[in-house]
Each structure stands twice: as C-alpha cells, then as structure tokens.
Specification:
Blueprint lengths: L1 E4 L2 E3 L5 E7 L9 E6 L6 E6 L5 E3 L7 E6 L4 E6 L8 E7 L3 E2 L3 E5 L2
Parallel strand pairs: 2-11
Antiparallel strand pairs: 1-3, 3-8, 4-5, 4-9, 5-6, 7-8, 9-10, 9-11
Length: 110
C-alpha cells in the first residue's frame, strides 16, 4: 500500500528524489513521513508533511531536504540535495505513523 522508490548510488554533494506511492485509503487526510535507517543504527525520523502541506524536518537534513506531496496522485516525495555520506541509509515512507512501505536504499559515496 506504500511503495517507495528512487534510491541509488550518488556522489557526495549530489541529489536524489525519492517517491512514495500510496493507496488512497492511507494517504488522503494523513500526515506522510519519511524515516531512514543507517547500517547498525536505529530508524530515525527525517521529515513530515501534513495533509494541508505543513512541513517539518530533522535538524540533520534541514535546508538540504524538501518533502512534498501531490494529493491528486496519492504520492509523497523527498528531494534530497547536498547529500553527505552520513545520509546513507534505507529510506522508508510512512503514513500517519502507522503504515510503512518497503525501504529504498540511498548510498552516498565517491
């Protein structure tokens, strides 16, 4: 019901755009979140966007990442710029803090 995509290998300083496709029943009216889990670490929250478009970010990504949503497509996005090696992780989309999609791997390395 949640399908994340767009991960890959990118050099430091590069950009990637992640997408999360959701079924309507767990998208409309819900806050969408992105989380990530780096190797050997706990999953951490990255960003959220409410149904009305209010956004919030973890301090570690503020100013570099942008979360957005397209309510006509039941999709959420995470634009990631100025990527750093420490951004390497599996990224997960989440709906309402309840529903999880499978992750997409982002590797930042030269």
């Amino acid at each position: 019901q949640l399908q994340a995509s767009g991960g890959g290998l990118v050099q430091p300083g590069g950009s990637l755009r992640l997408s999360c496709a959701a079924s309507g029943s767990i998208f409309s009216g819900y806050t969408m979140n992105w989380y990530r889990q780096a190797p050997g670490k706990q999953r951490e929250w990255v960003a959220r966007i409410t149904s009305s478009g209010t956004t919030d970010y973890a301090d570690s990504v503020k100013g570099r990442f942008t979360i957005s949503r397209d309510n006509t497509k039941n999709a959420a996005y995470l634009q990631m710029n100025s990527l750093k090696p420490e951004d390497t992780a599996v990224y997960y989309c989440n709906s309402a803090g309840i529903y999880w999609g499978q992750g997409t791997l982002v590797t930042v390395s030269s």
